[in-house]
Amino acid sequence: MSKRSPFRYFKTSPEIIRLAVMMYVRFPLSLRNVEDLLHERGIDVSHETIRFWWNRFGPLFASEIRKDRINRTRSHSIWQWHLDEVFVKINGETHYLWRAVDHEGEVLESFVTKRRDRKAALKFLKKTMKRYGNPEVIVTDRLKSYGAAMKVIGNARRQTTGRRLNNRAENSHLPFRRRERAMLRFRRLQSLQKFVAVHSSIYNHFNQERHLNSRTNFKLKRTAALAEWRDLCSA
Question: What is the C-alpha to C-alpha distance for residues 104 and 41, in angstroms, rounded to an integer?
């Protein structure tokens, strides 16, 4: 039995929907910026339509990307993880965005909590390990919540801390910070969690490590990534 297309009730073509979602999530653009860019291409849709498309199809696209990447990268993603957290304001209240990154800069998991204690760190670690397995080395900062959570799991001997060792995780927050400024911050925890999950998957998909590849290889990888994107959720 063939899989039913998620676009079956939409008059707009899947190509336009994929383009709108990619522009909004991948680049630091507002909904109205995407509306104007589509208008220049002869596509007349409102920013509210783009919001609906993003909410409806963003998680579907991210889920397909995530499943494919887990199958391809699970074996090498358990070598070394970098864990870090940043402060995020939601309606004036401080929340914490935890992020796990592998040794190649792939964002493995993004998780939002209201606290930065052992319970939150433990929940974040269990969620990441359930999906990717148990890493050989875990690089963190000196937050005591990590050590306390790893003692519960039994990973205390695998934890490594040190100055500048965790730059990879800290740099992974930069694309999110650019999006946060473009969106004028977030208003609900659920919206933040949904966006960072989708954003990290799409960021991984188009992250070709440009500084490590020649121009020829980069163009080939970029073309392949776009081709895979255009096939997402196809019937």
Answer: 36
Residue 179 predicted with pLDDT over 70: yes
* Span 98-135, pLDDT tens digits: 999 988 888 889 999 999 999 999 999 999 998 888 88
| Beta carbons within 10 angstroms of residue 134's beta carbon | 14
Torsion 96-188-67-207 (CA) sign = negative
pTM: 0.84
Helix (H, G, I), strand (E, B) or coil at 162: coil
Distance of CA 77 to the CA centre of its chain: 15
Strand spans (E) along 137-221: 137-140, 159-161
Q: How far apart are CA 139 and CA 161, in angstroms?
A: 6
pLDDT in tens, 195-225: 999 999 998 899 877 777 788 888 998 999 9
Distance CA 147, CA 126 (A): 14
- Residues with Cβ < 8 Å from 14, sequence gap 6 or more? 5, 7, 233, 234
DSSP code, position 75: T
